Amino acid sequence: MAIIYILLASVVLPLLLYLYFTRHFNYWKKRNVPGPKPVPLFGNLMESALRKKNIGIVFKELYENFPNEKVVGIYRMTTPCLLIRDQDVIKNIMIKDFDVFVDRGVELSKSGLGANLFHADGDTWRVLRNRFTPLFTSGKLKNMLHLMIERANKYIEHVEMLCDHQPEQDIHTLVQKYTMATIAACAFGLDIDTTDPNKDQLKTSEEIDRLSLTANFAFELDMMYPGVLKKLNSTLFPGFVSRFFKDVVKTIIEQRNGKPTDWNDFMDLILALRQLGDIQATKRNSEDKEYSIELTDELIEAQAFVFYIAGYETSATTMTFMLYQLALNPDIQDKVIAEIDQGLKESKGEVTYEMLQNLTYFEKASNETLRMYSIVEPLQRNAKIDCKIPDTDIVIEKGTTVLFSPLGIHHDEKYYPNPSKFDPERFSPANISARHPCAHIPFGTGPRNCIGMRFAKIQSRVCMVKMFSKFRFELAKNTPRNLDIDPTRLLLGPKGGIPLKIVRR
Ligand code: HEM
Ligand SMILES: *[C@@H]1O[C@H](CO)[C@@H](O)[C@H](O)[C@H]1NC(C)=O
Ligand SMILES: *[C@@H]1O[C@H](CO)[C@@H](O)[C@H](O)[C@H]1NC(C)=O
Ligand SMILES: *[C@@H]1O[C@H](CO)[C@@H](O)[C@H](O)[C@H]1NC(C)=O
Ligand SMILES: *[C@@H]1O[C@H](CO)[C@@H](O)[C@H](O)[C@H]1NC(C)=O
């Protein structure tokens, strides 16, 4: 009798599990789409699911391993998905056929923070995007500039103090202090002090960071069973985070009596939107049905949350990588500094919107930084209906998630010779126009690209201009010459920080 149980436990059960966790693995072979061999349960994502590699790096390698293919059939855990390599196909999906590929395909519960713009689907996304786009115009940004400059001035005092006492600093933790304070001011009008390690405000910001930006196994579960998070009524984000944003939003709405003030932060802009009543989707054609949603407190909390989370860490890591590359390339740093000095001289020492817009060499260097280290990886869209890829026999079936690897593209010799070299001249007008428009997509592309691109640009520039007007950044003894990317974070970021030496100019 016992022998039967042992046999059952050691042979039959593993066999059944094996069959179950490999049940879809013929999908791409049957359709003649090339791709790497999947591993039971993990598909092609074993290294990222076990947190050995950042998911962005895993996708970069998948991209690089099939240099001659337009598309690559992969498995995210057990689910078949398609990695798109070809630039024209990318353009088709992200721009031309956008109406088929509106959603990202990570469905969260519609209640709570799940209703945020990044994770919203279909008509809800359309309404939200339509109404929130005007919040990011250059006019609105100009009104916010003073909030950024105030935070930058305080932050620079802190850096000056550090520079005198302990000039070698982890630059990632350092610039986070600026972006956290800035986004808190621009999103909520909060004046938080992130430079004092004993203050609760810094601890709370760090806790929200940890809870929201650490890779979460719920994502792997959703890859195996698409839609499961919505069925489980899960928003992915822990109670601490949703309570925090609920409290902040509630307090601010009360303080402002539900009406916009003259702060000009995002909360003011959202309250002004709410005064207009229900928000509606613009009709794309006469057959489109009316669709409108009410801007409830819950919906406001979700947007406040996504602006906050998407707003500080993306800019912080981008500045970190840029400072690192400028320390490695002092001649390029000299040029960046010279341009900033010139700009400040022309604007009589004032940081103005026009002065920031005018930093063309800085822009090349920052585009080159985002080429080498694009931080939101991979990009994805989900097919609403079956869709044939032009010039191939491949049909993307309804419900299939397609993915893009900006990192893979940005390190492809075809578009960027000697890709590990930091060279801002790749973004000279002549070099840009010689490339496919989808060869540089750190902010995504098409109607669902990053809504905060302009904000990110101005927020980062205020900080960098202020820093470079006082300091230079040099390599320290412990600065890594080869960067490791943190496998446990959702965004691309340096593992264990990057120490640099801050030197007064
Ligand atoms: C260097 C800084 C940033 C980078 C590299 C970045 C990158 C991205 C990327 C790649 C996407 C996905 C685009 C796509 O799928 O095509 C995205 C979406 C988004 N980003 Fe950013 N981002 C940055 C800063 C910001 C800031 C400052 C904010 C807000 C204040 C923001 C808010 C958002 C939102 C709300 C979405 C979702 C848009 C939608 O689905 O309609 N981002 N971002
Ligand atoms: C989903 O969860 C929220 C709280 O997180 C709750 O208010 C709501 O009623 C739940 N919805 C369903 C359908 O269970
Ligand atoms: C922009 O830069 C150019 C060249 O450096 C300079 O001539 C011009 O005055 C600047 N404009 C502003 C508004 O700073
Ligand atoms: C184009 O980029 C290359 C580096 O890839 C650089 O050497 C060259 O000077 C650039 N060309 C122009 C016209 O700026
Ligand atoms: C830098 O990148 C942005 C966004 O991809 C693009 O709009 C801009 O034209 C680029 N500028 C330069 C100088 O490369």
Automatic annotation (TrEMBL):
The EC number(s) this enzyme carries: 1.14.14.1
Alphabetized Pfam families for the sequence: p450
Reactions accelerated catalytically: an organic molecule + reduced [NADPH--hemoprotein reductase] + O2 = an alcohol + oxidized [NADPH--hemoprotein reductase] + H2O + H(+)
Molecular function terms, GO-annotated: heme binding; iron ion binding; oxidoreductase activity, acting on paired donors, with incorporation or reduction of molecular oxygen, reduced flavin or flavoprotein as one donor, and incorporation of one atom of oxygen
Residue ranges crossing the lipid bilayer per the database entry: 6-22
Membrane topology per record: Peripheral membrane protein
Keyword annotations from UniProtKB, A to Z: Endoplasmic reticulum, Heme, Iron, Membrane, Metal-binding, Microsome, Monooxygenase, Oxidoreductase, Transmembrane, Transmembrane helix
Binding site for heme: 450
Annotated Gene3D superfamilies: Cytochrome P450 (1.10.630.10)
GO CC, alphabetical: endoplasmic reticulum membrane
Cofactor: heme
Subcellular localization, as worded in the UniProt entry: Endoplasmic reticulum membrane; Microsome membrane
Family matches, as InterPro entries: Cyt_P450, Cyt_P450_CS, Cyt_P450_E_grp-I, Cyt_P450_sf, Insect_CytP450_Detox
The keyword Nucleus appears for this protein: no
UniProt record similarity statement: Belongs to the cytochrome P450 family.
PANTHER family in the cross-refs: CYTOCHROME P450 (PTHR24292), CYTOCHROME P450 6A16, ISOFORM B-RELATED (PTHR24292:SF100)
The protein's name: unspecific monooxygenase
Provenance organism: Bombyx mori
